[in-house]
Specification:
- With 354 residues, the protein is an alpha+beta fold.
- 21% of the residues lie in helices and 39% in strands.
- The chain is built from 5 helices and 12 strands.
């Protein structure tokens, strides 16, 4: 009986050992590859905010799945906000990280992924926060500091910037403000205000009278364009002196305002699907497949294609996880060996996260 019990205990120990997460170092190339691909899918799933970049892999656990040879990874990823808005759909490796001159944002994501031949994001939860203004000013006294998005001067800066863009753009339609996403101020030669905002294409053409622009409705169409803009508004007071026949010279002030704007307008995702339909239907004509394409107006399209084209439409976004802004909290030390990994970006600020 004792020999049987010993054999049973050994079997249970072996089984439990196989079920426990295998600790892999955060500098393991395979673990880093999983973290990079997971972050790419997180950015693809999110519907607002800015694209996040990988700063370091803080912790992980890795459990082999017995039934199909795949694995489950639970990751803690330290992230930084980039200057690319989600609307751009840019890969995170192509985006520039916000430094202390651009109101940096940092945080961490708890991520669960399945890995076999591919990496599949299962769920995520990201917590983000701005670097405190005191930390920025201590390091860079002249750098811009964050301003409330609802401040009247910020709304005016966004309005003036968008007016300048609409006036100078060569696009067919006017664009309307969607959301102000970032705002800051700085003293240059006068008070300077900086805004970042998203825009939507409207139904109004560029020939629309200025008096009617307030009535322009956003285009309710999957082919409507969206964009991301950065704008600035600087007010400068200049002093002019004039000689007087008698007495001291007279002077007066003239206020000058300088507005700058830069916008990137992106093709809607539906256009990519439409291009797939055209390409597949064109190749299908050789096999007598039918493809009907009707333009109801410049941005409204109706497609009727045979099932043989098998157009791929992306999954709904925002259903795999969430991203919230909240204060930093203390966290436990990594449980995996050789964790956390090395930071990829150094902001040189007084924070254990940075």
């Amino acid at each position: 009986m004792s020999v049987y019990l010993l054999f049973l205990l050994l079997a249970l120990l072996i089984h439990d050992g196989n079920a426990k997460p295998e600790s892999q170092g955060c500098n393991n190339p395979d673990a880093e590859r999983v973290a990079e691909e997971a972050l790419e899918q997180i950015n693809q799933d999110r519907t607002d905010g800015y694209i996040l970049t990988l700063n370091r892999l803080y912790d992980l656990s890795h459990t082999p799945k017995q039934e199909n040879g795949g694995s489950v990874y639970n990751l803690t990823i330290d992230v930084l906000e980039t200057q690319c808005h989600i609307v751009s759909r840019n890969p995170w490796k192509q985006c520039k990280v916000r430094d202390i001159s651009n109101i940096p944002v940092y945080g961490e994501c708890q991520v669960s992924v399945q890995v076999d031949t591919q990496v599949k994001l299962e769920s995520y939860s990201c917590s983000l926060r701005e670097v405190a203004a005191t930390s920025i000013v201590h390091r860079c006294p002249d750098c811009p500091t964050a301003v409330n998005l609802n401040d009247p001067v910020i709304k005016e800066t966004a309005k003036l910037s968008l007016q300048k863009f609409n006036k100078e753009s060569r696009l067919a339609n006017y664009f309307a403000l969607e959301n102000i996403t970032k705002a800051s101020s700085q003293w240059v030669v006068g008070p300077a205000y900086f805004v970042e905002f998203t825009v939507l294409e409207t139904e109004c053409s560029k020939e629309t009278d200025v008096s009617e622009l307030n009535n322009c409705r956003p285009m309710n169409c999957q082919f409507a364009h969206k964009g991301f803009c950065t704008g600035s508004h600087v007010t400068v007071e200049e002093t002019f002196n004039f000689g007087s026949p008698v007495g001291d010279p007279e002077s007066f002030f003239r206020k000058q305002e300088s507005v700058n704007v830069k916008c990137e307008i992106y093709e809607p995702q539906a256009s990519t699907v439409e291009e797939q339909a055209h390409a597949q239907a064109a190749s299908g004509h050789r096999d007598n497949h039918h493809h009907n394409h009707t333009h109801l107006h410049p941005h409204e399209h109706v497609h009727s294609v045979s099932k043989a084209t098998d157009i791929t439409v992306s999954n709904p976004k925002g259903h795999l996880g969430r991203t919230v802004f909240e204060p930093a909290t203390s966290r436990s030390a990594p449980s995996a060996s050789s964790c956390p990994g090395a930071r990829r970006h150094a902001l040189h600020l007084d924070s254990p996260f940075l």
